[in-house]
Amino acid sequence: MGLQDQKASEFKRLLKSFAFAWSGLMHVYRHERNFQIHCILMVLAIAAGFLLKISLVEWYMVIGAIAAVLSLELMNTAIERTVDLVTEEMRPLAKAAKDAAAGSVFVAAIAAFIIGMLIFTPKLIEFL
Predict the structure, then answer these.
(1) Residue 61 and residue 117: Cα distance in Å, rounded?
(2) Where are the transmembrane segments (predicted)?
(3) Catalytic one among 10, 32, 58, 73?
(4) For 94, which DSSP code?
(5) Is the pTM of the predicted complex or chain greater than 0.90?
(6) 88 annotated active-site
(7) What is the residue-level pLDDT of the chain in tens, covering all 128 positions?
(8) Contact present, 83 and 119 (Cβ < 8 Å)
């Protein structure tokens, strides 16, 4: 296999990995109510950011908070599915793993809410 063929093969693998990632996102979006809620809140936060003309630094913080919550929600789903695959019984360790994963989303969501309040409240007061 020549260098050109090898690069083409690597590019195809890269495209496949993006397709798998997109498939995972769509699966979680279709089947997880909390992920759907977070996506709706993301759209609202982005719309508010444009409407209230937040600064570049504020955009960094909002996008970082959104990415953290959505990423952790995806990981939470992955952990829940994996635990369900391993055991259908109620086991204390399985419950602990699921609860810890859900807790990580909760912590990120609280932090995102606080970041949103710190950024948007003064702008909303000014806007109104």
Answers:
(1) 12
(2) 35-54, 60-79, 100-120
(3) 73
(4) H
(5) no
(6) no
(7) 677 778 888 989 999 999 999 999 999 999 999 999 999 999 999 999 999 999 999 999 999 999 999 999 999 999 999 999 998 888 999 999 999 999 999 999 999 999 999 999 999 999 88
(8) no
